[in-house]
């Protein structure tokens, strides 16, 4: 049965809690700013019509938001901190002598509510930011950052090949069920590349006199997993140690820095693979608030041919720098777009021949010349010394890559890069130092997504409370025409009398 907490605000020993919280207090203003009653309708289907009353859903969401606003990660410390603060007790609707919920109740309630309820709360706060004029919607900055998972890297286990049964315990006849995360699912060519790289790194670990040191433990997501949190992935950030992380992806509006989308992703994948899901959620939220999306700002990690094509199909200008390996021009060859063919320095044509795919599934376009043209060419010893003909390989999204490459080298492209850096990157600094996102206090990708949504809601609420609209009041007074002319004459006379007189020039004397 769904519980509903009633707050009577009764006097105890001539003490009223509402009188002790000033009107300018953060939590008092927050209680008056947001209408939290919609959470009852969102969570009613999750409860039975019988049984003991549960923790009030509104109290739960207020409590976990306080944890984000107070930079508290532990639920136990959160409850202890709230019991000492009168303003937080007033915000939660609890009397001074009333017991707060147990920390375990907060944890179980967080697992009970699906991620859709947290997304509904985020949408509700975002709509209020739009109503107050804090969101323009036309330009969004996108970025991601790793967040430490609630698991230790030292406890990871090695994955078993497909079809290998789990270990049998004493007295058991059938092997236990093997978790999906403990089975190797990587393709064979990736495993061979990983083994080759590990042997090369281990062979390079030698001492000054040739004596080998103790071999380091080389870990990879393709061969190891965390039994504590199977969704956590091993990743490394430049300048930091390798750890089990999740990826926090954000979209921030460039008008006032309001977060327009937040999601949790796996940390072992490139940012470009997470952009389609991020773009889908972002467009849905902006359409619901009747805001058009025209420009998307991101770093080179989101550079991908399919992403460029997807954004162009949606009529969104992608200010995403092209990845460093791409070259807009091939030295010694000129491209003709109408015929889709290249021409070499000797004047021979290399038309488009066929499509092909790489091992990772990426589609390619192949161009090559005829064998007779290359065999009789005087430039063959320097162009293709060991082959019969010259062949060029380009991505099928070469046209979209070229347009993005041209945009990033303009002055506007450099300005957009600075706008992105000043918009989305400071948000991650605030998340890390002021909103309790140093480390996850939950496990699983769904739990990480809920935590990141709550952090984004707390950040947007702070933006909403600090917003002060600029109101300009202008007063126009109509004067009669004769009085207006007299005022003008008096002003001119006053300026003449106050003008400084210049000294007369002295005549020059000849020496």
Automatic annotation (TrEMBL):
Region (Disordered): 486-511
Protein name: Transposase
Residue stretches making up the Transposase InsH N-terminal domain: 16-111
Organism: Hymenobacter arizonensis
InterPro entries assigned to the protein according to its UniProt record, in alphabetical order: IS1182_transpos, Tnp_DDE_dom, Transposase_InsH_N
Signal peptide: none
Domain Transposase DDE, residue spans: 343-465
Domain of life (superkingdom): Bacteria
Lineage: Bacteria, Pseudomonadati, Bacteroidota, Cytophagia, Cytophagales
Pfam families, sorted: DDE_Tnp_1_6, DUF772
């Amino acid at each position: 049965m769904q519980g509903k907490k009633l707050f009577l605000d009764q006097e105890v020993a001539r003490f009223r809690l509402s009188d002790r919280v000033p009107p300018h207090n953060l939590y008092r203003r927050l209680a008056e700013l947001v209408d939290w009653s919609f959470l009852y309708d969102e969570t009613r289907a999750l409860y039975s019509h019988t049984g003991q009353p549960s923790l009030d859903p509104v109290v739960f969401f207020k409590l976990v938001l306080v944890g984000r606003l107070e930079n508290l990660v532990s639920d136990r410390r959160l409850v202890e901190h709230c019991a000492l603060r009168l303003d937080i007790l007033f915000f939660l609707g609890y009397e001074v002598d009333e017991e707060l919920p147990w920390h375990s109740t907060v944890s179980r309630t967080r697992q009970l509510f699906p991620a859709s309820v947290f997304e509904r709360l985020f949408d509700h706060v975002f709509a209020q930011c739009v109503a107050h004029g804090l969101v323009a919607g036309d330009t969004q900055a996108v970025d991601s950052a790793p967040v430490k998972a609630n698991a230790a890297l030292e406890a990871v286990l090695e994955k078993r090949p497909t079809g290998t049964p789990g270990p049998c315990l004493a007295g058991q006849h059938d092997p236990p069920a093997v978790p999906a995360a403990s089975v190797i699912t990587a393709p064979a060519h990736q495993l061979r590349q990983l083994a080759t790289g590990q042997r090369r790194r281990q062979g390079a670990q030698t001492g000054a006199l040739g004596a080998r040191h103790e071999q380091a433990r080389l870990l990879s997501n393709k061969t190891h997993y965390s039994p504590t949190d199977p969704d956590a992935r091993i990743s490394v950030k430049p300048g930091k140690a390798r750890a089990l992380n999740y990826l926090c992806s954000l979209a921030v509006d460039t008008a006032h820095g309001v977060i327009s989308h937040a999601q949790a992703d796996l940390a072992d994948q490139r940012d470009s693979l997470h952009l389609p899901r991020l773009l889908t959620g972002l467009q849905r939220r902006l359409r619901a608030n009747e805001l058009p999306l025209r420009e998307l700002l991101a770093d080179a990690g989101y550079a991908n041919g399919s992403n460029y094509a997807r954004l162009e199909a949606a009529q969104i200008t992608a200010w995403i720098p092209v990845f460093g390996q791409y070259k807009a021009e091939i030295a010694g060859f000129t491209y003709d777009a109408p015929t889709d063919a290249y021409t070499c320095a000797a004047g021979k044509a290399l038309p488009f021949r066929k499509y092909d795919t790489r091992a990772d599934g990426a589609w390619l376009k192949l161009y090559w010349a005829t064998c007779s043209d290359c065999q009789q060419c005087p430039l063959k010893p320097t162009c293709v010394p060991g082959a019969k003909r010259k062949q060029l390989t380009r991505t099928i999204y070469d046209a979209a890559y070229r347009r993005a490459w041209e945009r990033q080298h303009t002055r506007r492209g450099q300005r957009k890069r600075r706008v992105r850096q000043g918009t989305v990157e400071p948000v991650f600094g605030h998340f890390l130092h002021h909103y309790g996102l140093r480390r996850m206090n939950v496990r699983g990708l769904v739990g990480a997504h809920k935590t990141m949504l709550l952090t984004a809601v707390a950040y947007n609420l702070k933006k909403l409370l600090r917003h002060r609209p600029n109101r300009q009041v202008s007063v126009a007074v109509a004067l009669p025409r004769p009085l207006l002319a007299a005022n003008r004459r008096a002003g001119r006379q006053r300026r003449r009398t106050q003008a400084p007189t210049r000294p007369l020039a002295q005549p020059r004397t000849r020496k």
